[in-house]
Design a protein that fits this description.
The chain is an alpha/beta fold. The chain has a domain at about 340-475. Helix content is about 25%, strand content about 20%. It is built from 16 helices and 16 strands. It has helices spanning about 5-10, 15-25, 45-50, 70-85, 105-115, 130-135, 140, 195-200, 220-230, 245-250, 275, 325-335, 350-360, 390-400, 440-445, 445-450, and strands at about 60-65, 90-95, 120-130, 150-155, 185-190, 210-220, 235-240, 255-260, 265-270, 280, 285-290, 315-320, 340-345, 370-375, 415-420, 455-460. The strands form two sheets. Strands 1-2-3-4-5-6-7-9-11-12-13-14-15-16 form a 14-stranded parallel β-sheet, with helices on one face. A two-stranded parallel ribbon has the order 8-10. Strand 13 (about 340-345), helix 13 (about 350-360) and strand 14 form a beta-alpha-beta unit. The radius of gyration is 26 Å and the shape is globular.
Length: about 475
């Protein structure tokens, strides 16, 4: 006799079963028996019929081949899977894991050719291989048609080895030109030193058409400038700039170039961010995510003219470390008079001057349009009593929330405070001594702000994650 739960599952309407399978899909579905849709197709014959006939469940596929021997079974799985998608637009990710760079890649070429009937319907393709340039070299011979391709991702993972062990800079990269024949390509994501080699040799990608570009590898300033100049249509950019680029700055100080389309920029850079940003004038920049120390202390504050890119910002997210250059940050906030949303990550004690500068009791007031403020306190912000720097934080928040605001200044609408968990012993799991939860105490002290209509959230109440999502990068 069937159990009640089994009978209930059997009697679920087809549209509900289809919806359950859809919401259970991982971001990159694969032929894994423990994941939807394959797992749910094994619930019952009725569910199997519903899921196998639901083309929307089969339009995205991650193929992982661990060596050449796995390609034959991967080819069979891909053919069946993508065939079930019928005429729907496709997203195809391919992760080829092989250790020997001298392997005969004819089998890999045959596998890529087997995807040719499906590639014309692909809207997004992602390729991951240690020797990505060798995989790309196969593409012209497989005759992929990329007329509908909108997004393309490349990942070249060298692991712990130096790039020179994997890429010969003298090698030609002709197949990257294949993307020039993708008229609808607008998004490009690249991870790995392969792209640094390609950028500095010959630009063969359709940069001028791209609107979203992600390069998550330590670029030189020269490479970043080349990309920005080559992408006049870019609306979203996400870049990692490495260390040792100081000499590059002098090369690009003039002539200054205007970029009119960029709206959102994510930038990871060790320091001197204001000077690097000043190479361009981003007239339409509204959202800026920055992971940086901002400036070396010995360099001082950059010239005022270098801060003009912060004038038009509506949203600013700054993730710092222990070497945050407070004078530069305060100058950025003074220039960002239109900022409505501000996130400060890893704020430490000893930064009373920052909170004082942000207080409406300081004249002239800064950030007059700020309505949402998130502050993430460094884990050391758990002490037995509320120290002066956190008292200054409390006073700043009160000044922006309670009572009469200065003329032309807005009241905060939302405050979100968070901190990392208390450190525990890796051996016993015990707390490293008694700590006072500063965030919880500050939240209680801000009750008058709540009464004044300000929404107050802490990570004791929510697991909110406000970090901007990187798009276009093929991440597994």
């Amino acid at each position: 006799m069937k159990s009640r739960s089994s009978q209930f599952i059997q009697n679920i309407p087809d549209d509900i079963a289809r919806l359950i399978a859809f919401y259970a899909l991982p971001s990159k579905p694969s032929p894994n028996r423990s994941q939807s849709p394959v797992s749910l197709s094994q619930v019952s014959s009725a569910w199997r019929n519903v899921i196998l006939s639901s083309s929307e469940l089969w339009s995205t596929l991650l193929i992982t081949a661990e060596g050449l021997d796995a390609l034959e079974i991967c080819q069979q799985q891909a053919t069946v899977w993508l065939g079930r998608a019928e005429c729907r637009p496709l997203t195809i990710f391919f992760h080829f894991d092989a250790d020997d760079r001298e392997d005969d890649l004819s089998e890999l070429q045959n596998f890529l050719s087997s995807l040719s009937p499906f590639v014309p319907r692909a809207r997004r393709i992602g390729l991951w291989y240690t020797y990505i340039h060798k995989l790309l070299a196969l593409l012209p011979s497989v005759s992929w048609t990329l007329d509908d391709l909108e997004a393309f991702d490349l990942v070249c993972d060298f692991g712990d080895g130096p790039a020179d062990d994997f890429i010969d800079e003298s090698e030609d990269l002709p197949t990257v030109r294949l993307l020039e024949h993708a008229p609808n390509l607008r998004q490009l994501g690249i991870e790995g030193e392969f792209m640094g080699t390609a950028l500095e040799s010959e630009l063969v990608l359709p940069w001028s058409r791209l609107t979203k570009v992600t390069v998550t590898y330590d670029l030189s300033v020269a490479s970043w400038v080349t990309i920005m100049r080559s992408c006049p249509q870019m609306e979203f950019g996400d870049f990692d700039i490495g260390e040792g680029y100081q000499d590059d700055l002098e090369r690009f100080r003039s002539p200054n170039q205007v970029h009119t389309r960029l709206e959102s920029l994510n930038l990871k850079i060790p320091d001197r961010v204001v000077e690097v940003m000043s190479i361009f004038h981003f007239t339409n920049l509204r959202n800026f995510y920055l992971k940086s120390n901002l400036q070396n202390a010995e360099d001082g504050i950059p010239a005022a003219s270098n801060f003009r890119n912060f004038h038009g910002l509506h949203s600013l997210y700054i993730d710092t470390s222990s070497h945050l250059h407070l004078p530069s940050l305060k100058q950025i906030l003074r220039e960002g008079s239109n900022i409505e949303e501000l996130t400060l990550i890893y704020i430490r004690k000893g930064q009373e001057s920052l909170f004082k500068a942000m207080s409406y009791s300081t004249s002239p007031p800064i950030l007059p349009h700020l309505s949402f403020l998130r502050i993430d306190l460094y884990p050391e912000a758990r002490v037995k009593q509320l120290e002066p720097h956190w008292k200054m934080l409390h006073e700043m928040l009160m000044s922006r929330s309670v009572g009469t605001m200065p003329e032309g200044c807005h009241q905060l609408r939302k405050i979100y405070m968070s901190t990392s968990p208390i450190a525990t012993s890796p051996y016993t799991g015990a707390f490293f001594g008694p700590y006072y939860p500063v965030v919880g105490h500050l939240t209680q002290m801000l009750f008058p702000c709540h009464e004044a209509g300000v929404e107050i959230i802490s990570n004791e109440d929510s697991e909110m994650d406000w970090k901007p999502v990187r798009i276009g990068v093929f991440e597994l």
